[in-house]
Design a protein that fits this description.
This protein has about 240 residues and is α/β, with parallel strands linked by helices. Helix content is about 45%, strand content about 10%. The strands form two sheets. Strands 1-2-3-4 form a four-stranded parallel beta sheet, with helices on one face. The longest helix is centred in the N-terminal third of the chain and has 12 residues, at about 20-30. The protein is globular and about 45 Å long. Mean pLDDT is about 85; it is low at about 135-140 and about 145-165.
Length: about 240
């Protein structure tokens, strides 16, 4: 039921991630998973599937590999886009100059704190726009908030919240985006329940689920196929 699959490349300092994906990075690095190993995995996936694939990693990984070599490899194995959460919009041109030469789309991220930069970022966005649902880092949440209260309570913290209310200004951010672009909007960070997906579908084009899927893989290992299928179908049905 997934429309696009986001694939993480392990990195030692994943600053946008909560404990679940931090631990996944540590497990991968302990098992000596390299960027080339991930490329090889994508190559094998492409032999069986043409679903859009998007890397999620950090700028140092790409810079160290070499921009031209990295994005040429992306093109060769069939990667469609890349998300770099530590790349500021104002410094993104050096990456865009290379990745677009190899038909790889740099996905723009807009956070609740973007404020006056929302329109500027949205106007140039391609592929889809990744709207960050809440202040803090990735991880399972039962409540999605973008207000000042949540900044105080949850900066740098992931985990379960007490209820399933949704902040109105997230919808306002998306309305602002719609005024300047037709690029699809997907909401991420903390989403893990069907009722959350149902809520966001009222005003967004998609949702991004990461930590909940990583937890299933951690729990079931090589037997995760069916639990993953059941979980994703519960979100998309």
């Amino acid at each position: 039921g997934a429309s696009l699959i986001e694939i993480g490349i392990p990195f030692s300092d994943p600053i946008a991630e909560g404990p679940t994906i931090q631990e996944a990075n540590v497990r991968a690095l302990k098992n000596k998973v390299t960027t080339d190993d991930v490329f090889e995995m994508v190559k094998k996936v492409r032999e069986k599937s043409d679903i859009p694939l998007c890397f999620m990693t950090y700028l140092n990984v790409v810079f160290h590999y070499g921009y031209d070599e990295f994005f040429k490899k992306c093109q060769d194995v069939g990667i469609d886009g890349i998300i770099l959460p530590d790349l500021p919009y104002e410094e993104s041109q050096e990456v865009k100059d290379v990745c677009y030469n190899y038909d790889v789309t740099l996905i723009s991220m807009i956070a609740p704190t973007s404020k006056d930069r929302v329109e500027m970022i949205a106007k140039e966005a391609k592929g889809f726009i990744y709207v960050v649902s809440s202040i803090g880092v990735t991880g399972v949440r039962s409540e999605i908030k973008t207000d000042i209260e949540s900044i105080v309570k949850s900066i740098g913290v992931t985990g379960t919240r007490d209820n399933t209310s949704f902040a109105n200004n997230l919808e306002e951010i998306i309305e602002h985006i719609r005024q300047v672009t037709n690029t699809p909007v997907a909401i991420g960070f903390g989403i893990n329940k069907p009722e959350q997906v149902k809520e966001f579908k009222q005003y967004a084009d998609g949702v991004i689920v990461g930590s909940a899927i990583v937890n299933i893989i951690k729990e079931h290992g090589s037997q995760a196929d069916e639990p993953l299928k059941e979980y994703i179908q519960s979100l998309t049905n």
